[in-house]
Amino acid sequence: MEKHITILGVLYIVFGALGLLLGLGLLTLLSTIGIVSDDQQAFAILTLIGSVIAIVMAVVSVPGIIGGIWLMKRKEWARILVLILGFINLLNIPFGTILGGYTIWALLNTEMVKLFAAQPASVLPVSPPAV
């Protein structure tokens, strides 16, 4: 099950990065179309639309990147975050559905739940008293 954690972490990081790139690409494309149109009002409207799309794509993509990074560090909260994202991804046909199904299958597996539950809580080291 260890390899499934790594695979899921990498997939969520890659999908998140692709989402960010897609948002920036659409912003660039729409702004460029506005410039080429040689119409100030068209440029302003297309740049605004591109900016909104880029912001929405960032809001949707960043949790996947964060979840993927911390999932590979075996954090229970990241498992829950990625599970939530997996259920949401089921609506994103076809690749999101595949990723969501794999996420749900892997992270709800009893062995995986035990693996994350067995992680010790982080404890700050206690130094011995000074003599």
What does this structure look like?
This protein is mostly helical. The protein has one domain (2-117). The protein has helices at residues 2-37, 40-72, 76-89, 95-107, 110-117. Helix 1 packs antiparallel against helix 4 and helix 2 (40-72) packs across helix 3. The longest helix is centred in the N-terminal third of the chain and has 36 residues, at 2-37. The termini are far apart.
Please give the structural blueprint.
Layout: H1 2-37, H2 40-72, H3 76-89, H4 95-107, H5 110-117
Helix pairs in contact: 1-2, 1-4, 2-3, 3-4
Mean pLDDT level = 90
Helix content: over 70%
Helical run tally? 5
Radius of gyration, CA atoms, in whole angstroms: 21 Å
Overall SS class? mainly alpha
| H/E element sequence | HHHHH
Largest sheet descriptor? none
Share of β-strand residues: under 5%
Q: Which blocks of ≥5 consecutive residues have pLDDT under 50?
A: none
Number of separate structural domains: 1
Q: Report the principal-axis shape.
A: elongated
